[in-house]
Give the backbone structure.
Amino acid sequence: MRDFFNNVPEELWLDYRWQIQHRIKDLKTIGKYLKLLPEEIEGFKETRGRYPFAITPYYLSLINPEDPEDPIRLQAIPRSVEMDPEAQRDGDPNPFREETILPGLTHRYPDRVLMSLTTFCPVYCRHCMRKRIFGDGERSRTQNEILQMLNYIKETPSIREVILSGGEPLSLSNRKLEFIFSEIRKIKHVEIIRIGTRMPVLTPQRFFDKNLLEILERYQPIWISTHFNHPNEVTELAQKAVDNILKTGTPVINQTVLLKGVNDHPETMLSLMKKLTTIKVKPQYIFHCDPIKGAMHFRTTLEKGLEIISYLRGKIGGYGIPTYAVDLPGGKGKVPILPEYFRRISGNTYSFTTFTGEKVLYSIYEHSSQTPAGSLPRDQGFP
Ligand SMILES: *Cc1c(COP(=O)(O)O)cnc(C)c1O
């Protein structure tokens, strides 16, 4: 697909501003690049005004136009299934309802707050957990709203970490970002800034901007949490972006969402985790897909996720195996779920399941900490 953009000079292709300005946003233009399927044409018509569409030339260039089920195509191009009654069934109309403190500020865990800075994104992912709000248009928080959020953080000493989220927080100008970072750094009890960004996947060119990299370096400790879902997204440019981020001293972790048709296959996930660890991105989570109105068709069973986690064990270093988790509705938080690796048989004896599936009996005794090292048991209790 890069062939379509062969006439674009390299220096423009590598400029994030060009990528953002040249986003494809309508049916007619995307039709020049992809032979759309009937359900995609229907999807464009039915989702208009409700769930916006946009894609950067870069992310579009990763689609194999010959494959109607291409994993990037499924994440980015609307389909009529989004408007099916079943996909419109909604478990939780606003997952952050209970925890919203101020417009844009979510405080669920005592030590961490989430600032949602904008509804703008370079690409509107069809599975997005914020899908519900994107129909209202692209809007960034006002200076006043940001100041109010910062004030709440300043007055809440339990907050150790501020997570910048969106939409896409790194779509804000460097000036705005630097203002927010410097204001957060004035608050003594905040130790960590985390940026939840999909730019490394959708517009890795953002991290070829020297000014942004200098800002990241200046306001450490910062963590970047990103969102790769498929090995095809781990490109040379994505690797360069991650390299540039790492050089600023910022660790990069990844959150994948388990999506039917995109990555619900053990081999696909293994390949993704191998590629991520090779470019030095630590897989943090695989999330079970939330009940999101318009994205129900992406949901799998829990057993599928457990099968994938079991498959990964033994095939990649432990740091390459993310935590599989469900984000409970009503602000109840993320709960890790694991395959059953051990079971108590009797007394102190447990049955363990190894990475090859073998069952091994093993006894666990509690160490009696009363016995000083080297002393003989019969000495105990004597002066
Ligand atoms: C996911 C989330 C966090 C961060 O959770 P981690 O397990 O630290 O990644 C914080 N606040 C809210 C509201 C969240 O949804």
About this structure: Residues 99, 106, 108-109, 112, 114, 163, 334 surround pyridoxal-5'-phosphate (CB under 6 Å). The mean pLDDT is 93.
